[in-house]
Amino acid sequence: MSNPVFSNSPVFGDPNDKRVREARARAGVGATTTQTIDAVTLDKMYEAPSATPRETGRLTYDDVIIKTAGVFSLLVVSAAVTWTLVPGLWMVGAVVGLVLGLVNAFKREPSPVLIALYAVAQGMFLGGISLYFEQQWPGIVVQAVLATFSVFAASLFLFRSGRVRVTGKFVRWLLIAMVGYLVFSLVNVVLMFVVPNGGEFGPLRAGWLGVAVGLLAVGLAAASLIVDFDSIKRGVEQGVPAKFAWSAAFGLTVTLVWLYLELLRLIAIFRE
Q1: Looking at the 3D structure of the chain, how many domains does it have?
Q2: Is 27 a domain residue?
Q3: 30 located within any domain
Q4: d(CA 36, CA 187)
Q5: Which of 194, 171, 268, 255 is CA-nearest to residue 221?
Q6: Which residues make Cβ contacts (< 8 Å) with residue 112, sequence separation at least 6?
Q7: Does the keyword Translocase belong to this entry (predicted)?
Q8: 31 within a domain of the structure (yes/no)
Q9: pLDDT beneath 50, residues of the chain
Q10: How far apart are CA 110 and CA 157, in angstroms?
Q11: Are residues 267 and 144 in contact, defined by beta-carbon separation less than 8 angstroms?
């Protein structure tokens, strides 16, 4: 998987992957037990209405939607407070958000408290950095927000309609492309400190090259969203515990934050 939030989870991964099977065995996911049931109890169970996924404690799409809305609301409120009162704390939010993001991504069991703290820290970062962009290019934040939701909606439509299928080849391509983009971004950051007058976003993210790279990054983020949707669909179909809705919400938030930042930078390059 491309998103470590899903790929490192024993419940969202591909069951054909050996590492996922081993992780599930360690976590006890999918284990069954045998017990003796008398005839009367068996008749009552047969006549009773079928239990819903919610009643059996299994993951549902409603769980994912509610948890995602909650995490995103925390992020938006934190961003608004930071924008209005303490925009200078954006660097603190960036560092804390990065640390909490890594901790949550590699935890086997979701922690609602840590995920909520991540949303608050990431909101601090986004609030401060968005204010900076808004002061440089008035109106850019609204444009980036609308563009983010548009890409999200388009990605969801492509996934639900079956026009884009998540296959092993698709995931491998996405993983290779994202590693290449990460290396490119690190080189660009280094050049920002080495090359004089490297531009607002680094020498490799200026002009038409910056536009091309920005469009590629937005495409990678959109493809990552599609893989996230597929992971959530697999989790629901396999009946994983409902608590993993927090992991799904966290994974979607991580991808959406990345998408928003890429669109913010891309629009700024266009407006320059």
Answers
A1: 1
A2: no
A3: no
A4: 63
A5: 255
A6: 246
A7: no
A8: no
A9: 1, 31-35, 51
A10: 28
A11: yes
The predicted pLDDT at position 35 comes to: 47
The 10s digit of each residue's pLDDT in 131-153 is 999 999 999 999 999 999 999 99
* Domain-located, residue 35: no
Q: How far apart are CA 81 and CA 155, in angstroms?
A: 30
Q: Which pairs count as long-range contacts for 147-150, CB under 8 Å and 24+ apart, including other chains?
A: 147/263, 147/267, 148/256, 148/259, 148/260, 148/263
User: 3-class secondary structure for the chain?
Assistant: CCCHHHHCCCCCCCCCCHHHHHHHHHHCCCCCCCCCCCHHHHHHHHHCCCCCCCCCCECCHHHHHHHHHHHHHHHHHHHHHHHHCCHHHHHHHHHHHHHHHHHHHCCCCCCHHHHHHHHHHHHHHHHHHHHHHHHHCCCHHHHHHHHHHHHHHHHHHHHHCCCCCCCHHHHHHHHHHHHHHHHHHHHHHHHHHHCCCCCCCCHHHCHHHHHHHHHHHHHHHHHHHHHHHHHHHHHHHCCCEHHHHHHHHHHHHHHHHHHHHHHHHHHHHHHC
Domain containing residue 165: 4-16+56-271
Q: Which amino acid is at 223?
A: A
